[in-house]
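Researcher: We're reviewing a set of sequences before deciding which ones to prioritize for further study. For each one, I'd like a predicted 3D structure that I can look through quickly. This is R-spondin-2. If possible, include the structure in token form so it fits the rest of the review sheet.
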Amino acid sequence: ASYGPNPICKGCLSCSKDNGCIRCQHKLFFFLRREGMRQYGECLHSCPSGYYGLRTPDMNRCSRCRIENCDSCFSRDFCTKCKTGFYSHRGRCFRGCPPGFAALEELMECVEGCEVGQWSEWGTCSRNNKTCGFKWGLETRTRQIVKKPAKDTIPCPTIAESRRCKMAVRHCPGGKRRRPAKTKDKKKKKKNLMERAQKQHSIFLATDKTSQ
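Model: Here's the predicted structure for R-spondin-2, in token form for your review sheet.
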């Protein structure tokens, strides 16, 4: 029978005009639907979103998932599918995966990610495999992969990084002192100036003798 806006009493063992289903057939789940100030019972083959089926000797019921942002759950405290935009991880729902876990976008799940160790100390400042002879060089530090990711598609974080550093020893002991690249140009300019000065001085002397 149908009672206006109330659900059809399909699958009910007993039904009320005001409250809908009161008892369900053995295999069905009793669900108490609320609409505003009213509530009425329904008998369903499976529970709606946000609920899970709880079977008891007395009567099977739909119980609410107690996990935040859960769309469907296996039990009161274990979510099997999260709401849109949330990742499922160990029966809970998260906006982002916890540390050590990576997001698997196609399934919206958190899986074990690539675990890396602590950074090593910064290495010796060097350039061209030398630790002297230059003003600036590079120093590097590394870290090891402790655990590989469960999926090959999940990348590992950087395991090596370098930064600019100042050489502790500018000039190599016993080696030739490196001169700036412009030293030769300066020497050439100085030589040209000397030659021009000498030429002008010769012209001055020749002019002076002629005038005498």
